[in-house]
Amino acid sequence: MPSATQPLSKITRLALKTLAKSIKSARIEQKMSQENLAMRLNVSRLTVIQIEKGSAKVSIGTVFEAATILNVSLFPEESDLKVTANRISTVSALLPKRSSRKKRDLNDEF
User: Fold this and answer.
1) Could you say which architecture CATH assigns to the domain 10-93?
2) Euclidean distance between CA atoms 58 and 50, whole angstroms
3) Residue 96 above 70 pLDDT?
């Protein structure tokens, strides 16, 4: 979660608002109440309201699950997502397991 000193970028805010609007529109189109969606997500109605406002405070898993329940597409096509995930796995396998090495104690006594 971003701190007060690290605000969200414009593109992040735009992405949150766009997904929020898509989720709200799909919910209304499917004649599903906020209470019903909250029940299916196992969260409070307040959380659904926050999702529909594009709040960055709601966990990404909960937002993605709301989108899935409402058939809101997160990625262009599921097959594209699988291909991308496989590519990332292949590249990740080539990367080091950690980003930095353990610091060694230096013996600076000469």
Assistant:
1) Orthogonal Bundle (1.10)
2) 7
3) yes
